From TrEMBL:
Ranges where the Amidase domain occurs: 67-507
Pfam families: Amidase (PF01425)
Similarity comment text for this entry: Belongs to the amidase family.
Protein name per its UniProtKB record: Fatty-acid amide hydrolase 2-A
Highest taxon, organism lineage: Eukaryota
GO CC annotation terms, alphabetical: endomembrane system
Active-site residue numbers: 129, 204, 228
Gene name linked to the record: LOC107737091
Protein's organism: Sinocyclocheilus rhinocerous
């Protein structure tokens, strides 16, 4: 049973309405104006080292932690007024902690190896998405009603990074309730893309994406239930990893997942240099990281590679940008030339239903039979669930404390059927089986990160389903590494998702490391406009 004619008609109607709204928006939307159009260049060479290189230098006393932390504070102070990525800092506490680190290193008698083993990130600064609890910092997730909430403890993943010696510099912006492609809310405002301030930094971990892309942080913590690590990593030209389900604890982030969503939400690392992904994942995963055999050597020549260029033409989703298709082809050529492997191009028809699969599974009750918390409940004010239609009315008059994206999601929820379509469930099952068989323990799949290069601010309102290029892998529980692939003709980041079988994270991580060397990885914004 395929989609009914009525469902297809509804899809087309929706597209027509969206394009009419988009045309009206283009005509009347106010343009953002910035005095400065480019990010200032990076002048301090410390900002161009990976976390692993810096940690080594700090341990060897080649540089002090205070110098490194101060370098990052200076860079944040220089760029944050332009990108609005960090929403609350803890600079003086971070400098004090850095001074303690330097003292500890001075007094350590066991040698560098002891420190490396016990405290692999000793003295290295880090940034954290505001949706995670970080002691002493706000944890509003962009909700005005949570504006005074200060975390008393750390989220599990943040605690593990701190225990490894990392020094948090502050928390970064996200979309309202972490459920949108753009990082915008009425508490902190909108985050800009460091490559073009008129474009989005992505969401929901967009503050992390932007601050990392701007060279004002080198490692950060993000979360992803539909692409919230991978979309901002893609738009800001950095690396990110959505781990296999169940490896990194999701405790201590808001909102908590409910229903089946607990199995789709993943916490993971975001960083500028690929070599930091594995150490961060090992730390953030705690004992669970052992399931991934991250230290086992990967011989890329022995892997089977596949490339899927698009989702087969869903009418809800934009076609994949020609420059992204070209970049993915270039990766295929490099893999074939450098490694002598044959990359097989595939079309997987079930991917066309990615959004329907994601939507159905996200709305499903958990194993305990309880339905997930509704978006309107999460948006509640003074303990009362909001009324989406009333909220829309308020928004039109400029009185709502919520973004149009959050209101839109609460409205869509009203029309969601409580009876999942058997056709969609069947597509999900067959896709899961096909991909698990295809990838096994040695398969690597290349898939676009998103059909579009970073859009202009607010434009995702007209293309809300595009996120399903990333969201589908949350439902399937597969690990994905987001890898940058140079810049477009307009100087905006290109990229690709690298997908592997469950618990085979080391394969996509090794492929990303290779591609960083082959293609160049993160590029400093405003410096070069280079095609891949
Ligand atoms: C104002 C327009 C709103 C229309 C809403 C249309 C429905 C689209 C459904 C879901 C969009 C969710 C986007 C999720 C982005 C990433 C989420 C994440 N935390 O990983």
């Amino acid at each position: 049973m395929a989609l009914t004619r009525f469902e297809r008609f509804l899809g087309r109607l929706l597209r027509a309405v969206v394009w009419m709204l988009f045309a009206a928006f283009k005509l009347f939307a106010p343009q953002q104006r910035h005095g400065v159009s480019r990010l200032p260049p990076i002048t301090n060479p410390l900002l161009l080292l990976s976390a692993m290189q810096l940690a080594r230098k700090i341990r060897r006393k080649e540089v002090t932690s205070v110098e490194v932390v101060q370098a990052y504070i200076d860079r944040i102070q220089e760029v944050n007024p332009l990108i609005n990525a960090m929403v609350k800092d803890r600079f003086s506490a971070a400098l004090q902690e850095a001074a303690q680190v330097d003292k500890l290193i001075e007094e350590e008698t066991g040698g560098e190896e002891v420190l490396e083993d016990r405290l692999p990130l000793l003295g290295v600064p880090i940034t954290v998405k505001e949706a995670f609890a970080l002691q002493g910092m706000p944890n509003s997730t962009g909700l005005l009603t949570r504006r005074d909430l200060i975390s008393g403890v750390d989220a599990s993943s943040v605690a593990l990074l701190k225990r490894a010696g990392a020094i948090p510099l502050g928390v970064t912006n996200c979309s309202e309730l972490c459920m949108w492609l753009e990082s915008h809310n009425h508490l902190y405002g909108i985050t800009n893309n460091p490559y073009d301030f008129e474009r989005i930094a992505g969401g929901s971990s967009g503050g992390e994406g932007s601050i990392l892309g701007a060279g004002a942080s080198m490692i950060g913590v993000g979360s992803d239930i539909g692409g919230s690590i991978r979309i901002p990593c893609f738009f800001n030209g950095i690396f990110g990893h959505k781990p296999s389900t169940g490896i990194v604890s999701n405790d201590g982030q808001y909102p908590p997942a409910s229903g089946l969503q607990m199995g789709f939400l993943c916490t993971g690392p975001m960083c500028r240099y690929a070599e930091d992904l594995i150490p961060m994942l090992s730390i953030m995963g705690g004992p669970n990281a052992n399931k991934l055999s991250l230290s086992a050597e990967v011989d890329l020549k022995k892997l089977r590679f596949f490339s899927v260029p698009h989702n087969g033409g869903s009418h809800l989703v934009s076609p994949v940008d020609a420059q992204l298709l070209q970049a993915q082809k270039m990766v295929v050529r490099r893999l074939e030339a450098d490694l002598g492997v044959k990359v097989q191009e595939l079309f997987i028809p079930q991917l066309k239903y990615s959004f329907q699969i994601w939507g159905t599974m996200m709305a499903s009750p958990g194993k305990d039979g309880k339905p997930p918390t509704t978006f309107a409940e999460l948006m509640s004010e003074g303990g009362k669930k909001i009324w989406p239609v009333w909220e829309l009315f308020k928004w039109l008059l400029g009185f709502s404390s919520h973004t149009i994206a959050a209101i839109g999601l609460a409205l869509v929820e009203l029309f969601q059927s409580s009876h999942p379509s058997p056709f969609v469930l069947q597509q999900k099952e067959s896709l899961q089986q096909e991909l698990e068989e295809l990838l096994g323990t040695d398969g690597v799949l290349l898939y676009p990160s998103h059909p579009q290069i970073s859009p202009k601010h607010h434009h995702p309102i007209f293309t809300p389903f595009n996120f399903c290029y990333t969201g589908i892998f949350n439902i399937l529980g597969l690990p994905v590494t987001q890898c940058p692939l140079g810049l477009s003709e307009e100087g905006l980041p290109l990229g690709v998702q690298i997908v592997t079988g469950k618990l085979q994270d080391r394969l996509s991580l090794a492929t990303a490391l290779y591609l960083e060397k082959a293609i160049g990885g993160w590029r400093e914004p405003g410096k070069t406009t280079a095609k891949p």
